[in-house]
Amino acid sequence: MLKVSGEKKADEETNGDKWHKAERTSGKFCRQFKLPVNANMENITAQLEDGVLKISVKKMAHERKQSKVIDIIEQGRSSDDVKQQRLLLK
């Protein structure tokens, strides 16, 4: 879970060419985001530019699973009737 919280203080009005409209001018805020299982919690970055917060969460490297062979022994009704098979798991 990623939790972003903070407080925006009221801005002073300035005369100039640029004007920015914000729905919430001041006050506390809190947002929570559910992260995927493969989120790399050790490699999260955050940048604040022109009042916009950008949070980047990288995925963990995909671990390549190795194939595995499992022997299956099937015994019949008589003790002499034994079959052996192999199962390949990927």
UniProtKB/TrEMBL annotation:
Keywords: Stress response. Signal peptide: none annotated. InterPro entries: A-crystallin/Hsp20_dom, HSP20-like_chaperone, Small_HSP. Residues 1-75 form the SHSP domain. The keyword GTP-binding does not apply. Belongs to the small heat shock protein (HSP20) family. This is SHSP domain-containing protein.
